[in-house]
Amino acid sequence: MSEPLLALLAATLARPPSESERRRARFHLLDWFACVAGARTSEAGALGASISSRGWERATYLGNVLEMDDVHRTSLLHPGPVVWPAALSLSTADMAQRLDAAVRGYEAMIAIGAAFDSHHYAHWHPTATMGVFGASAAFGSLLGFAPIEYANALGNAGSVAGGLWHMRHDDVLTKQWHVFHAVRTGRDAALHVHYGATGPQGLLEGPQGLFAAMTKEPGELASNGPREENAWLIDTVSFKPFAACRHAHPAIDAALELRRSGQLEPPFTVETFRDALTFCDRPDPANELEAKFSLQHAVAVIADGRDAEPEDFTREAIAALADLRAQVSVAEGADFTARYPAHFGARVNGFELVDTLGDPERPVSEERIVAKMHSLARWGGLPESEAQRAVRLALEGDDAAEIDAMLEDWIR
């Protein structure tokens, strides 16, 4: 009889992360800080400030508001907004323990998420359904879990996984609630196992498990190379340089390349993968959220000389770009759909990009992530000194308590 999938994953989670992965985690921490800082003055920020006295818990409502959170392509989810609150949620943990917790949280969330198919993605919000695994693994790491404890906690967390996409049809805060719910549920699952709870280790592949309930053709858990090389999946995560849905990024990136060469002229034709049309074919966005999920608006932003910053998706920008948006047509490119989700690509006015800025194949620099921190801090109303503080704490600092204090200062 084969070993349950969660038991196999639990054994990989018990490995010690290397300094390379801890360094990579620091960049993702800074990226999450930037997203939190930029969302401080949003409606979700006000809600987050009211729910708890703890900075990490308040921040759970902010990490995905601007649509600039990190993303894993093949599992189609955003690990940072879920994993970092959980990894920072034990006040007695030092910086090294928190970084290791994040590496393990990314690993669990991505490894399991990659096994879920297009049927799942059509109905379920993967950051929510898989987020409970990431939060559980991260908090279990802080508690010093052995493999059996990881397996039990992941089984219990997954037994209540959920989060439907229907909220995309309304201008609501459900997406932010999904992140909060995933963090709290995964964290509680680990805490209860710490005190003696047991869980179903066959929860994924069992006859009444998640694969049976949420997929039609489940795949295999993701792996980043031979385990003897100590490879971790956090190295395969993409950063998002633009303030829009990730499905719109290839079109934005291609339009930017055309603009730099002086060749971005109307009318604009966009060809991209099918899911980009499913989520982002929206010629007449009515609000900020819809603008972030509009291919037409995204290309109009670049054609207008803008750089896809948060201010380019406001109601004012929506009104200003109506004429340009009307000149954008979108269609599926079968070649892009065939390569998706391993590659997010698009063709704008005949110019093609297979991979997008921020992907491992086209990585962003440390300077770009630092610049993102400064830009979003300004957007969120923070002084330059706070952006510098975040950069120092994320990339160089070892004072975990100062991180806690910073988050509490930001979200009041």
Helix content: 40-55%
**What is the chain-wise order of helices and strands?**
HHHHHHHHHHHHHEHHHHHEHEEHHH
Shape: globular
* Residues in β-strands, percent: under 5%
Protein described:
The protein has 412 residues and is mainly alpha-helical. It folds into 2 domains: 232 residues, 2-methylcitrate dehydratase PrpD (Orthogonal Bundle); 108 residues, 2-methylcitrate dehydratase PrpD (60s Ribosomal Protein L30, Chain: A), CATH 3.30.1330.120. 52% of the residues lie in helices and 4% in strands. The protein is built from 22 helices and 4 strands. The protein has a 4-stranded mixed sheet with strand order 2-1-3-4. Helix 1 packs across helix 10 and helix 2 packs parallel to helix 20. The protein is globular and about 65 Å long. The N and C termini lie far apart (53 Å). 56% of the residues are buried. The model has no long low-confidence stretch (mean pLDDT 96).
